[in-house]
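Record type: monomer structure entry
Structure origin: computed from sequence
Chain ID: A
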Amino acid sequence: DKSQIVLSQNDIRDVQGAVSLLRTDRGLLATLTAAGLTEGLCSRCLVPLLTPIEIRFKEEYIPLFDPNTNAPVHFEGPQDTFRVGADFALDLSEGMRQYLLMSESLKPLCSQSCAGLCANCGVDLNSQECSCDAGADSRWLPLSAVASMETEGS
């Protein structure tokens, strides 16, 4: 049985973890540790890959309503504070989504030695050699004169 959590565009598969809840004077302190796999693409060769990820957070959740009286709870803290909904159900998905975005690799790689794609023809250099004529990029030609001046002057 594989577990999967969908957080906006991000899927976390094979999720395992633990959460502990502690009652505070204002609400609940949730401490979460979870690990799983996220889907993505290699930033060099664009092959699909699953990347391991770990999420850890400790956040206080403030209720919208007092559970004893159902009166609204007035909270004068930051507006982005996590809240316990009117149904008194604790939803950790927004906290997990935010911490997932901070934990994800900016440039996931299929391997450290990934050669990427050919800049000219787009062939995957991990699976085959490129047969295109790379040649010199014409945008760099003005700098070749500077390079030849340096070698002549030394």
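Annotation 1: DSSP finds two helices and five strands in the chain.
Annotation 2: The first helix runs from residue 93 to 103.
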